[in-house]
Amino acid sequence: MKKNIIFIIIFSLLSTSMLYGDELSIYCAVGVKPVVDEIIEHFKKQTNTKITVSYGSSGKGFAQLEHGARYDIFISADIYYPKMMIEKGLSSNNYIIYGRGKLALIYSDQFLKNKKPDFNLLKEANKVAIANPKVAPYGKSALQVLMKYGFSDIVNSRLVYGENLSNVLSYLEKGFVDAAFLSYSIVIQNEQLKSRSIIISENDHEPLEHALIITKYGETNQSAKEFVNFFTSKQGKEIIKKYGL
Description:
Elements: H1 2-20, E1 23-29, H2 33-46, E2 50-56, H3 58-66, E3 73-75, H4 80-87, E4 96-100, E5 103-107, H5 109-112, E6 128-131, H6 137-148, H7 152-158, E7 159-162, H8 165-173, E8 179-183, H9 184-187, H10 191-194, E9 197-199, E10 209-214, H11 222-231, H12 234-242
Parallel strand pairs: 1-2, 1-3, 6-7, 6-8
Antiparallel strand pairs: 3-10, 4-10, 5-8, 5-9
C-alpha cells in the first residue's frame, strides 16, 4: 500500500514536470515581436518551459512549416496564413485572432529635422522602405496605402524592400532610407520612433487582423496549449493592448 502511494506521488510529480517543463518552439511575425517577447517573459516566470523563438515574415514562417519545419505554434501578423495552415493540413486546430494591427509611417531623424511628421512629406522622400508585400502583411498594407494615394513614382523607383520588418527598421536606423512603414507595435514603446511617426488610418488598407495557431506538430505538446491559454488570458490581453493591438 505504501509503495503504491509513493508510486502515485512520483508519477504525479513527473506529470507536473512534463506539463510545465517541456520545450516549446514558436515562429513569430516580426511585427509583433515586442508583444510576444513580453508575453514569453511573463510565461517563463510561471513555468519551467524552455522556449525557442524564430522571427521573420508571416509568409516565410508558413513556407518553412509547409516544408516540414517543426514549430509548435505559429504567430502570424494576419489571418491568411493561419487559414492556409488549416487548408494545407498543417494544423487541425482553429486559429485564434489575438489582435488588430496598426500600420505606422516613420521618418528618419536626419530627413525630418525640425519638421513635424506628416504623410505628405513622402513626396520629398528619396527612398522609402517597406517589408516584402509578397510574404509580409505589413508590407502588403503599405503598398496598398501608397497605391491608394497615387504614389506610383515611389512604388516604381523609390521603394526599398526588406525581407521583414526587422530589415526595414534597420534600413531606417542606418539612414539608408528617409521613411519606412512599420507595425505600430514596434513603434509604440520606442519614444524616438514614436515622435517621428504617424499612424495610418485603417480605412486606407485591408484589415490587419492577427492570428495564432497550434501546428499539427505541436498538438501533443501540452506546453503549447498552456502558452496559448496564457496568451489569450486577461494578463496576456493586457500586454497585447499595451502594444496597440
